[in-house]
Specification:
11% of the residues lie in helices and 34% in strands. It is mainly β and 73 residues long. The strands form two sheets. Strands 2-1-6 form a three-stranded antiparallel beta sheet. The chain has a three-stranded antiparallel beta sheet with strand order 3-4-5, with no helix packed on it.
Length: 73
Amino acid sequence: MIHIIKHGRKCYKLNCPDCGCIWTFEKEDITAIRNSKNEIQYSIKCPDCGAGFVTWDEKQWVVPYEKIKELLA
């Protein structure tokens, strides 16, 4: 039988080249966009300046679990 001790979450991190903002976010903050070729892209906007970020692979934004505490400290 499976028992969950603590639910996990993936943490993502981006640095905005426009304004210098560095922020973390979670999967539910990412918007999935289906383009005209029926491919999915992922996007998010900088919380400071609104610059848009788009990727084909949201995993490139994932921060390894052991680095999360460093970022939030």
